[in-house]
Design brief:
Largest interface: A-B, 27 and 27 residues
Order of helices and strands of chain A: EHEHEHEEHEEEHEHHHHEEHEEEEH
Radius of gyration of chain A: 21 Å
Largest sheet of chain A: 5 strands, mixed, barrel
Helix content of chain A: 25-40%
Strand content of chain A: 25-35%
Oligomer: homodimer
Shape of chain A: globular
Strand order of the largest sheet of chain A: 6-9-7-8-10
Number of helices of chain A: 11
Structural class of chain A: alpha/beta
């Protein structure tokens, strides 16, 4: 029996990719790089190379169930784990771990975000396999850390103990440092970015929940018999809302002393906003990046143009993001990607749930 | 019986308003100012205020028959005069004059372009009525001339004899003068722009054709009995292609000595290209003109934005034309409106018929 399970975290509802992303169609369901597949489709296929289809679960909100069934037709309804209310990552991971451990108490789990950009899937597979092999024979809680190429202040950093073994003991997590601190991390050389990619055995992570989030663990352990039965839905509906709104990083990883990191060998980008699409896809600074677009650039350079298959003419435009959807057209300098949320709010003033 | 007839010239296939205008949907069928009506609908309604519905004819190509029936549902099929082949304005006017004269030999005709912008329809009606009244009792060939407000080198100029009578004798036509000549015309004060708006009796214009374009007149007079009968279509199919490709201005008006002009009192703009839409619709130079668009302009001014009902966000953009259609998005400086034909050709390299 294959003990490897995958958990794809697909509950995000961000609007940083407005107007393409909306609460009805968030980033993980979009193809923003012109690959022909949405991020969640790419993520599923990446995991599916080493994890059996029926052992990949998708953690999401009930509202996205139909979208997921539409985009990932291979999986069955019971592999979509819908949270009845929005909670943070710790309750979601605990829920998934309980279900999987009930199915296979020798399970090892990969937890992966659904909306990141990863190139070189083979390296991803070999890194994940190394982690699976490690956690199958130890109680290590592992993360895959990204080798930083800039003092980015938007990421969490993982400090590791510098040993010859490729799997390094984690010394400390630091959330979003200031620029000076980030630069010093890079200079020290034993820091990686936290990409939210975790590998552990279901037994080890449940043990960690019991130790570091005992209240949450107790609530979810009131009746282990209901997992993967018809009774599960009612149990979750009643108990999940009682769980603390806390991240797995803050609730477990920053406290546990058995956390390890493997420096990733694949290309990774969380693609946090429109500008990141340009940064990831362009070859040189003067290039225009045209996604799903037939572009005629007349004296125009450095632009990101994303449409749904349109012909686009640009003249005398530099370093803009041009994003066209059936309802909205946005033309802004790429550097102003942070204003997108403000524009989204202007046109959709209803508060998001 | 009302002797007043209208002829709307609607055969144009220009691409200066690409990507909105295409050979399948040229300018006259578009609403480019956000009025809620296409240019030809506006033109029809303007004429219909004084000319009975059944006495308004539309001269066009066969390919636009369905579009016209769709946009002007009031008229009957026989009021759509379709040229079997593209000819210039002289053959078209002669064809219409023959038909109308056969119906009513006391007819007076207004010939008007289908795709111009005219504001103040009441003034238009009173100017046209004055011309109708004049040509009903004389053999005058009349034009309505536009008082020039700039030394525009793209128009034809009409020099008139400066007399107290509001209806002035035409001395000379000048096509597209150079800037210096245009400026001297403005300084002299007795020049008007030729807007292609003509008024005459069917008898007078037929007389003029007989005199100045006798060959064309003879061909179209081979069998007067067929007009407005089932035989007309075959006759036209056979004979119309034989007619000389010449404009009414060049073929008749520049030669005849009974040509008169009435200075128009209405606001007129031929809206020759995207920039002209901005120029006509803006109140002050910093204003953005948004046509069929819900615009959020962030540090952006002087732009023309035309979509089909979209929300648009602009940041840091000045004096651009932003035109969005279901297939094409064009973002170019307004001043570069002349490059539109080049872009149209790039994306539609098939030669237009």
């Amino acid at each position: 029996m294959n003990n490897q399970f995958g958990i794809i975290m697909a509950g995000g509802i961000g609007t940083r990719f407005w107007p393409e992303s909306t609460p009805e169609m968030p980033k993980q369901f979009l193809d923003l790089t012109g690959s022909g597949k949405s991020f969640i489709q790419q993520t599923f296929e990446r995991l599916n190379k080493q994890i059996p289809t029926e052992q990949i679960y998708i953690l999401t909100n009930e509202r996205y169930r139909d979208l997921i069934k539409e985009q990932i037709s291979q999986i069955s309804d019971k592999q979509i784990i819908a949270e009845p209310v929005m909670r943070n990552t710790a309750p979601a991971v605990l829920y998934a771990a309980k279900k999987i451990h009930q199915i296979n108490n020798k399970a090892v789990m990969l937890v992966a975000p659904s909306d990141h950009y990863i190139a070189n899937d083979d390296k991803f597979a070999s890194n994940v396999q190394a982690a699976f092999d490690e956690v199958a024979q130890s109680d290590k809680l592992m993360t895959l850390g990204i080798v930083p190429n800039a003092p980015n202040t938007g990421y969490g950093y993982i400090q590791f103990e510098n040993t010859p073994n490729p799997i390094k003991k984690v010394l400390q997590f630091t959330e979003k440092p200031d620029l000076q601190t980030a630069q010093s991390f890079l200079n020290q050389g034993n820091y990686l970015w936290n990409a939210g990619i975790f590998v552990w055995s279901s037994a080890s992570i449940l043990q960690a929940f019991k130790k570091y989030l005992p209240e949450m663990y107790q609530i979810m352990s009131r009746n282990d018999d209901i997992f993967n039965t018809a009774l599960e839905k009612d149990f979750i509906k009643k108990n999940f809302p009682l769980l603390e709104n806390i991240s797995i990083d803050y609730g477990i990883l920053e406290k546990a002393d058995n956390v390890y990191v493997l420096p990733a060998e694949f290309v990774w980008n969380d693609l946090g906003a429109w500008n990141a699409i340009y940064e990831q896809l362009h070859q040189k600074d003067t290039e225009n990046v045209a996604v799903n677009t037939q572009l005629l650039a007349d004296n125009s350079r450095g632009n990101l143009v994303k449409t749904n298959g349109k012909k686009v003419v640009l003249k005398d435009l530099e370093n803009y993001a041009v994003v066209d959807t059936p309802d909205v057209l946005m033309i802004i300098p790429r550097k102003d990607y942070q204003k997108v949320k403000e524009y989204a709010k202007y046109f959709s003033p209803v508060p998001e749930k």
